[in-house]
Amino acid sequence: MAAKNYISRKITEDVRSRNNIVDVISECGVALKQAGANYKALCPFHEEKTPSFSVSSEKQMFYCFGCQAGGDVIDFLQKHEGKNFIESIEWLAKRANITLPARDTTYSARQKRINDLSELNTFAVKYYHELLRTGQHSQQAREYLKNRGIVTKTTNLFQLGYAKAHRNDLVKAATHEGWTVEQLVDVGLIKNEDKGPQDRFWNRLLFPIHNERGVPVGFGGRALSDEHQPKYLNSPGTDLYNKSRILYNLDKARQSIARKKSAILVEGYMDVLMLYQHGIENVIAASGTSLSEEHAALLKRYTPEVVIVFDGDVSGLQAAQRGLNRLIAEEIRVRIALMPKGDDPDSFVKENGADAFTERIDGSINLIEFQIQAAAQEKNIRRPDVITRVVRDVSELLVNIKHRVERAEYVKYAARELNMDEGLIWRELRDLGLKETPTASRRTPKKKMTIREQIELQFIQSLLQAPGYIPAVKSVFDHNDISQPHLAKIAEMLWRASENGDTVEIQHILDNCEDKKLKSAITRLLMSGQAISNHYAIIQGCIKKLINYICQDVEQRERSEGDDDLEKLKKLVTLSNERRAYVQKKVEQLKQNTEHTDAATDTTRNAKDIKKEN
Q1: How many CA atoms lie within 13 A of 309 on its CB side?
Q2: Sequence-separated (6 or more) residues with CB below 8 Å from residue 326
Q3: Phi/psi at 49 (nearest 5 deg)?
Q4: How many helices (H) and strands (E) in the chain?
Q5: pLDDT at 613 over 50
Q6: What are the Cα distances from residue 194, in Å, to 63, 166, 173, 197?
Q7: Of 24, 218, 313, 568, which has the highest C-beta tally within 10 A?
Q8: Cβ of 179: how many Cβ atoms within 10 Å?
Q9: pTM over 0.70, yes/no
Q10: Chain segment 22-55, per-residue pLDDT in tens
Q11: How far apart are CA 471 and CA 500, in angstroms?
């Protein structure tokens, strides 16, 4: 059985049904308070002062009316804990004491190897951390941390460690515990040299590196003497550690990042530690590498915005430009915060405190505006070679913006700041592969829903809450006649789900919905619906009004064609009479179909009751 298919629909339903969403969300640290039939809390996915996060025990769903996050218990774990689908199922299965089927042997063997290497890294983290805390030879490392202002609580939280000056201490300790030299090489902790196995890290302060789930995957080591080079040494690439996919401290920062909807990206380990120690928890670092496409995709899971903190050296920004463009291509807002010359985040926050640092972050400037302003201050900006380079650099930034209106606005801004014709920038963008032409930048205000749109909303909401009526409804109403595209798509999913006469399961539709916005809309409709005692009356009334609207559309088209002569008026009267008769016919047809549906439901219910009694 392939790894991606080893979780069946039946298993998913069993795992979901045996994990109450209220209990799971509470265990994940969200303080739920009962409010009527539901539970409410401050949303864990964005910062707010008034609770808009709602959890329904009856529907086993959550929804935030502030940030539109929603779904079931599996969706919550994926979003809150950063787990993928399989990891969420495995976590919930373990919680509910459910045994999952074995995966195929190839996958199981590889997974066992990965698990073994993770355990070996965990052993190394504890070994190095204990040496730092109590080792006789680690006094220099402890003094270094003390001089840098790192307190014991931070040292323990980040499990900082120390590797002694001898080259085979870890080799001896790990092999004594049963690990093999091959495993130590595979995980990057030792190197096989002419003299035999040698520790990769020696006489260094060690920073354990974890993936976003908190699994240790590697180490960063700082030399404790100037003679020991390089100053910083990271683990090599392994099956566990790929520096293009790992962001230092994301495991501890991700919940704060999701809440604040912003990540602070700094350069080094000490910057992260010092900011975190001062209560600024949404901080991460790229561990000495430029931002990759994988980094950008990883960040997009947690935040719409990244603030890059530079130490006042604009050349560092230029060197990082390609990585920053990748963030923009993922539709992540990028802002730039500059430290005073001679300061880095570590030294700045120690000297000035968290509030002063936060002010710097709040005053950060949008990357695109920053780059354009920096370009405008170029020396010899009017020289042909300089202006050519500037236009190219700015265009390489703008071409990554996906929204046409936003891009057009920045083209105007760049042209104004650089005192040049917009056409030059548009031509450069086209040369870079952009196909869209400039569009008007006016944004239309959000329209108030028409009565028809309100009826359509109520209609779909009622069907989601009472899916048993869908077969009867689809026989008299076409989902294509719904005017709002997203509601029409939901209706199409409902109609398709009942094609074979099967009972429509809304949860199954949600499980198979790959459109996140559509899935969120369905969840919102389910969560925001009021308790209704007679769904049929609502559905019947909606259909009657909607069919009326559809017929009126036909009449309107007839009225708009030709002159209002006597024949035309007679035709319109006939159409109007036919419309009323047609609507009445459809309502009667719905009533008959619904009676069959209710009778079938009663029969099924009675059969279940008899089975229970027996």
Answers
A1: 31
A2: 291, 292, 293, 295, 296, 400
A3: -105, -25
A4: 27, 16
A5: no
A6: 60, 16, 21, 8
A7: 218
A8: 21
A9: no
A10: 999 998 888 899 998 899 999 988 878 899 999 9
A11: 10
